[in-house]
Amino acid sequence: STFHSSAHLQLGFLLLGRRASSSTLHLRRGHPILSVASDAPLSSTPTMMDQQYVQLLQQQQQQQQQCPQQQALAKQQRRPRGWHAVEAPSSLLRTHNAIRDVLEALPPLQELTASNGKSVIALGQGDPSVFQYLKPPECAELALVDAIRSKKCNGYAHSAGSEECRRAVAEYYSKGLASDLTVDDVFITVGCTQAIEFCIAALATPGSNILLPRPGFPLYETFCSYMGVKVRYYDLLPEHNWEIDLGMLDMLTDRNTVAMIICNPSNPCGAVYNLEHLSKVVQKAAQLRLPIIADEIYGHIVFEGQKFCPVASLTVDVPILTAGGLSKRWMVPGWRLGWILVSDPFGVLRKGRVLEGLTKLAQLTVNTSTMVQAALPSILQNTPDEFYERSNVLLQEAAKLCCRRIQKIPGLECPSKPQGSMFIMVKINMSMFMELIDDIGFASALATEESVIVLPGIAFGTPNWMRIIFAAPPALLNEAWDRIEAFCDRHRSKC
């Protein structure tokens, strides 16, 4: 028992105190025997220490002589009567990832195939590697192999990323920007998702608010919700190529607004903002004193006739945090390497200790894969232009295929054709599919009956739409649209 162990220790120290040097104490935890080896005999004259020794022995004997019922009662009195309340924090419970919620609510893929005999065609998650159609550049794979074989990448790196990695990113992305980036302006993250999380965390405090696009990537709201940050939505206008409704920004902004997020090229809309529109957005941000978080993970994935303009290339007045990464343009989302680029020529963010905050955030996860970091300089330097061009052509052809098929299906509409990224937003005329009720019912029934997985628009803040990723082989896309067309024919309301 605890008492026995404590008593033994006290007895031992008492005995040691009255022995000559070279005493040796032998203790066995919970054992009633305590022995002392000494080269000096015990004194025959009782001392205060001897009396304490006797008292402790008597207490120990009394405890051992207690009846079993008394011992059980003593144990019960020492034991907590019940657990204190153990609850998950409310900040965690109010956190949800709308995309994951939808995908994980579906039956397992094996069950879908077993229920209807059709192989699953997953057009929901934004992963360009799923179908092995869009492959990473060979130089990226070789660079990673070389990094592994070098035996130099098995340890930790600087929390913000290795200096070589950050320098390579700074040099690569300084081209065309309004001001050059330095190594200190770059933070390497675990994918672009963490880059966005860090940008929000570095600017916002509980009770402040951020302006988000609608429709928009749902993780923006997820991060804000977890951090206790309020969200306010500005609309993207489908009839105007999903451009930002600039008139809403004045109404939404107040003294507690800390930033606005822009996603260009757009997820989920597939829009690419032209120079004129982006210039107006930046001017409005300067007028409202709004820092911009630019989600440019799909940067440069644009189709014929379109040009990608980094937001940071248009201004030196507005502080901009740009989130990017390898995932989409290089087709390697599983490599989990992203970055934050800090464009802040006048030092607004530095004065507010935002860079210091980003440094602290980076220290939470130590660093991303040092092997991928080591490979990154070679990837940025050696990926041929032909790789980017071929990828964009394949995606453009896939987008055109989707638009052609949509035109032939009554009840579906695409008001704005994709100009870039990997997604198309399809409007569902639910008055023609009344038995399905809404976009969630539409997507759920489509998965169950046809094994085609798409995401309902409500996951992006826009009900009665659906988002489809078209980073898939043409034959597979056509098969998916054949099934969608048959599904719509079955469920279309008979008037």
TrEMBL record:
<dbReference type="InterPro" id="IPR015424">
    <property type="entry name" value="PyrdxlP-dep_Trfase"/>
</dbReference>
<dbReference type="InterPro" id="IPR015421">
    <property type="entry name" value="PyrdxlP-dep_Trfase_major"/>
</dbReference>
<keyword id="KW-0032">Aminotransferase</keyword>
<keyword id="KW-0663">Pyridoxal phosphate</keyword>
<dbReference type="Pfam" id="PF00155">
    <property type="entry name" value="Aminotran_1_2"/>
</dbReference>
<dbReference type="InterPro" id="IPR004839">
    <property type="entry name" value="Aminotransferase_I/II_large"/>
</dbReference>
<dbReference type="GO" id="GO:0030170">
    <property type="term" value="F:pyridoxal phosphate binding"/>
</dbReference>
<dbReference type="GO" id="GO:0006572">
    <property type="term" value="P:L-tyrosine catabolic process"/>
</dbReference>
<protein>
    <recommendedName>
        <fullName>Aminotransferase class I/classII large domain-containing protein</fullName>
    </recommendedName>
</protein>
<dbReference type="InterPro" id="IPR005958">
    <property type="entry name" value="TyrNic_aminoTrfase"/>
</dbReference>
<feature type="modified residue" description="N6-(pyridoxal phosphate)lysine">
    <location>
        <position position="328"/>
    </location>
</feature>
<feature type="domain" description="Aminotransferase class I/classII large">
    <location>
        <begin position="119"/>
        <end position="484"/>
    </location>
</feature>
<comment type="similarity">
    <text>Belongs to the class-I pyridoxal-phosphate-dependent aminotransferase family.</text>
</comment>
<keyword id="KW-0808">Transferase</keyword>
<dbReference type="InterPro" id="IPR015422">
    <property type="entry name" value="PyrdxlP-dep_Trfase_small"/>
</dbReference>
<dbReference type="GO" id="GO:0004838">
    <property type="term" value="F:L-tyrosine-2-oxoglutarate transaminase activity"/>
</dbReference>
